[in-house]
Write a structure and sequence with these properties.
Layout (H helix, E strand, L loop, with lengths): L2 H8 L1 E3 L6 H12 L16 E3 L6 H6 L6 E5 L7 E9 L8 H10 L3 H4 L2 E7 L4 H14 L1 H5 L3 E6 L19 H17 L4 E7 L3 E3 L3 H11 L6 E3 L8 E4 L3 H10 L6 H11 L6 E2 L5 E3 L31 E5 L2 E2 L16 E4 L6 E10 L1 E8 L12 E12 L2 E12 L4 E5 L7 E8 L7 E10 L3
Parallel strand pairs: 1-2, 4-5, 4-7, 5-6, 9-11
Antiparallel strand pairs: 3-6, 7-10, 8-12, 9-10, 13-16, 14-15, 15-22, 16-21, 17-20, 17-22, 18-19, 18-21
Length: about 450
């Protein structure tokens, strides 16, 4: 009997649940490479004995959940699958930790019906379990209502389960290879956990601002997609705003782990959709998410990458009205009241806000408002909101101190977290002025970025 044939008859391969056909083939070829190549023709498929493992499933091994152990720090998985899971991997940065602001941006830019569609999963990737618990406690205090509603989960995993991230070969990413390798593993563990929670998965970073109504916009856009897709980008920055089918997440987890020490995550995510036959990245315009952090995840240097195509307020800007505006606040630079005064689409910025500060809108013609929205602050200046204040409607327009105003004002509602909204389809009375009034001094400036008014048509 030839040597090779004798060797193969004695060689037994047992399929293991974590093995793949590629690994088995490579193992056999490696051993055959040491044999006499002149006798290779005597080897046939009948010479290899495969013992079937009854517990092995090809599809489960290739696409099932990875057996990673997670620990819940807050919340528990929802009992039913929702439309969207929003995943964030967070590593605590000493100089700038914006995770709480990011979570607040997610929830505050959703209406109630949108909140019912989402689950937010925070993967705390700090090596220090004590620090993870402290971060989780901060989230519990600020977002207890969302935790109770089952829409906020906070998890961690064991450091011991990570592959090596030290003494790796420097390749495509220079000195940051240790941090970026760990980041690949962090993302892999996060998406693996989220695989069965919802229909779709959205990747964000822990220093991100969201556009108003982003959930409904994503839902509407996905419904209009006629071609098959793997990834849709709702931002042009790195990992932010990448949307996936949840059914692809276990494959993405394996893909990130396969090349974790070779290729950065943003490249891998691009390669992933290419391997699934989506040639070009599908971008949604305008961008729904903005990067607001200035401290790099990989070092303590200050960097700034922003998306120039991000619009915080998307959708109808209200009806085209004509009006004049004035304020008693000190104005910063060229950010004058006229910038935001209907039909203006700019920004007003006021300083030294007191309990007597106001911003008045005087309409050229009386209007019957059906809906009013006033936005203050911004993604980049989240503290420059009206912290305490309300809106009044005015009548009896007169000339006073060389400008027009109204003699009679009646309050119609308060600002909440820097946002005012009134919707009254039954309103029949006309008004001639609107006035924004502060009720307490604040150390932060006031930035009014949008005043949208919808009126009853005659």
């Amino acid at each position: 009997m030839p040597l090779t044939q004798s060797f193969i008859r004695r060689r037994t391969i047992v399929l293991h649940p974590l093995c793949s056909c590629t690994v088995i083939a490579a193992q056999v070829l490696s051993e055959l490479s040491h044999l006499d190549t002149d006798r290779m023709e005597t080897i046939t498929s009948e010479n290899i004995i495969l013992k079937k493992n009854p517990d092995f499933s090809v599809m489960e091994s290739a696409t099932g959940l990875l057996p990673i152990q997670y620990k819940y720090l807050l919340g528990s998985p929802p009992s039913i699958k929702r439309f969207l899971t929003i995943g964030i991997s967070s590593f605590h940065k000493k100089k700038e930790h914006l995770l709480l602001k990011t979570i607040d941006s997610i929830f505050s830019h959703c209406r109630q019906e949108e909140l019912n569609l989402i689950t937010v999963v925070i993967y705390l990737a700090n090596n220090d379990s004590k620090l993870n618990k402290e971060n989780a406690e901060e989230m519990k205090v600020q977002f207890s209502a969302h935790v109770k509603a089952g829409r906020l989960l906070v998890i961690q995993s064991s450091v011991e389960s990570y592959p090596p991230v030290h003494n790796l070969k420097v390749d495509l990413w220079g000195k940051n290879i240790k941090y970026k390798s760990k980041q690949n593993v962090d993302y892999a563990y996060l998406v693996n956990f989220c695989a069965n929670l919802s229909q779709y998965y959205l990747m964000l970073e822990d220093d991100t601002a969201c556009a108003t109504g982003f959930v409904s916009i994503i839902q509407s856009y996905v419904r209009t997609m006629e071609e098959s897709w793997t990834t849709i980008a709702f931002s042009r920055l790195g990992y932010i705003g990448k949307l996936y089918h949840s059914s692809d997440l276990t494959k993405l987890a394996r893909f990130l782990l396969m090349f974790y020490d070779v290729i950065p995550a943003d490249w891998l995510m691009t390669y992933f959709h290419k391997t699934k036959m989506q040639g070009e990245t599908i971008f949604y315009w305008p961008s729904l998410f903005q990067h607001v952090g200035r401290i790099s995840s990989f070092h303590e240097l200050e960097v700034q990458h922003t998306d120039s195509e991000f619009y915080e307020d998307i959708g109808s800007l209200g009806d085209a009205l004509t009006a004049s505006c004035f304020t008693n606040m000190q104005i910063y630079g060229n950010y004058i009241p006229a910038n935001v005064c209907p039909p203006g689409r700019g920004v007003f910025w006021g300083m030294n806000v007191t309990a007597k500060s106001y911003f008045t809108i005087v309409f050229d013609n009386p209007i019957i408002p059906q809906k009013i929205q006033i936005y203050t602050g911004s993604a980049e200046h989240s503290t420059d909101i009206l912290h305490n204040g309300f809106v009044e409607k005015g009548r009896l327009k007169v000339h006073l101190n060389e400008r027009q105003t109204c003699l009679s004002f009646i309050p119609i509602g308060d600002f909440k977290s820097g946002f005012f909204e009134m919707e009254d389809q039954t309103n029949k009375g006309d008004i001639e002025c609107l006035r924004i009034k502060a009720t307490a001094p604040q150390k932060h400036w006031l930035r009014i970025r949008r005043i949208s008014i919808w009126v009853k048509k005659s």
